[in-house]
Request: fold
Amino acid sequence: MPVHTLPASEAIKRLDSFDEIIDARTEDEFALDHVPGAINWPTLDSQERITIGTMYKQVNPFEAKKRGAALSARNIADHIERFVIDKPRDWKPLVYCWRGGNRSGALATILGAIGFHVTLIEGGYRSWRASLVDDIARIAPRFQYRVICGPTGSGKTRLLKSLSALGAQALDLEDLACHRSSVLGHIPGVPQPSQKHFDSLIWDFLRQLDPSRPVFVESESKKVGNVRVPDALIEAMRGSPCVDVQLPDDERVELLLEDYPFFVTDTDLFCQRLDALVQRRGHEAVDGWKEDARNGKTRAVVKALLTDHYDPMYAASIKRNFTQYSQAWPCEVPSRTPEAMTKAATSMIRWAEKAQASTQS
Reply:
């Protein structure tokens, strides 16, 4: 059966119509980013690709192609033996590699010869990536964002999770970025996604949302750790209605100690993170915090970080960047408990629904 090609701009629209999405690139390329939902069937694995590339340059292209064909044939045979034998005749896979050339072409040709309905992404991942970036810019402004604002430690992430549990649409950018946003926000042992994969995660989340319903999102800055929020999304967020969340200071301290247990369990790591604040706060202040932390006064250090460092910065940033913050709906949360967060999230949903109804009437 002939192999069909599909422009990436069309593949974006029809992604859910395929039974399987197969990435024929190496494991390393796949790990950096891939089409959402794709599985990895390398035509050449990472080491084999290096070997063939070296042979191509140091020996000659003809010898490299022969060796590459032998490796590819063995790998494709293995994929078919492991994953294809039980597929029905009407199985419809979407296949791609870097540029839609040799690697995906070889796999698609064999699958097509078996009799499957195979489609190749025209231009491969490179074209897909360009289309995805364009599509984020197109769909991000469509949604009715409700921005959850509040100083560090006020429970914004917990509120997002409570909102989601109640059935609301909640976009948790920090969860997608594997980072809690501040300079202390790196999660030990958890790497951040690449910028490309972060964009893919955002696109995949946005495309599944209902534009007729509000989308709750935290008041992030342009960067979450080392990754950047797409411009179209951050601009839409910054022009949207806001919620002003307030949690008592002592509750904020305890919440942060729960969310960042290494503050207490790994004092050396905590002090190492504090060094990132030297440029803004100076050696004297940071050295004092580090000494207190080593003397078991972690709660006092966290409270000082909130009141002396994060709160003034946040207040200035939120007023400067979120145009509707001055009219924010106030949301006072008495404690960090799940019950209090659920109650606040319920009130937030009612506020958003009421505001939406008044806008439409």
Remarks:
- The chain has two domains: 4-134, 143-269+313-360.
- Residues 61-84 form the longest helix (24 residues).
- Residues 4-134 form a domain with the Oxidized Rhodanese; domain 1 fold (CATH 3.40.250.10).
- The first strand starts at residue 4 and ends at 7.
